[in-house]
Amino acid sequence: MDEFELLLDLHKGANRQGPGGDSETEKAIGLAGIDRNAPLKIADIGCGTGASTLTLARLLNAKITAVDFLQDFIDVLANRAHSNGVDEKITPLCASMEQLPFKDEEFDVIWSEGAIYNIGFEKGVADWKRYLKPSGVLIASEITWLTSSRPSELQDHWSNEYPEIDTASAKINILERSGYTPIGYFVLPEHCWLDNYYEPMRKSFDAFLSRNGNSEEARAIVEAERHEIELYEKYKAYFSYGVYIAKKLNE
Ligand code: SAH
């Protein structure tokens, strides 16, 4: 297996592929002012194995197109939708977030948890706006600095991983400049990282390593993940995911 296949193997058994939580998804629904009874059309972009998709399907009267460019994740999501009895609400779609097969003004809501960084926050919010109806709402979580300065070890790590990492004020400014009205923001609490994402991952390392013959490549992946977890535990006062909620301006 190459590195990509190993990463897929590590992550596809998980409930989520990034920090988040069901109650935080529900909180964002509230802040966005989404009517739970309205027959909405939602796109969940970079859905992974569908943690947020399933919560949206459970709570809302919506048709959700769940998009990821990895067919393996989409297959897991489709199975989970079926076993949760919500497959009628969910259309799984294997596509790239950079080339979405959507029509202009097709959606009431665009949802994206822990995924917009793959296209870059600024490009994502600009490119996806056309798919929102007038006054449609964008909800996106994005890694965010919680303070105006931070230790250089942390700065160096994340600037290298994702140069667009920035403060909430900078992200909100991007939304304003891109034709949105920011209507809500909150920070994902620690349990979204540790209990919901890193702990389950940590528990899966031994099985992952033995499945993959304890290969050097598999061990390198576990080491990189462990390093990321250590950085989080050491520096969690300085960064988290911010959840950004913004309404499309009617221009
Ligand atoms: N929303 C999920 C997954 C977050 S991880 C959760 O919160 O658990 C980011 C996801 O984005 C992964 O599933 C990855 O496969 C997907 N992704 C990365 N680049 C992509 C692209 N160009 N197009 C579509 N999906 C992409």
What is the terminal separation in angstroms? 49 Å
The run of helices and strands is HHEHEHEEHEHEHEHHE
Strand content: 15-25%
**General shape:** globular
Provide the low-confidence segments as ranges: none
Can you tell me the CATH topology?
Rossmann fold
| Helix-strand makeup class | alpha/beta
Could you report the average pLDDT, rounded to the nearest whole number? 97
Helix content: 40-55%
Query: What number of domains?
Result: 1
Query: Largest sheet, if any?
Result: 8 strands, mixed
Ligand species? S-adenosyl-L-homocysteine
- Calculate Rg over CA atoms: 18 Å
| Tally of helical runs | 9
- Spell out the CATH superfamily: Vaccinia Virus protein VP39
Number of strands: 8
Under the CATH scheme, the architecture is 3-Layer(aba) Sandwich
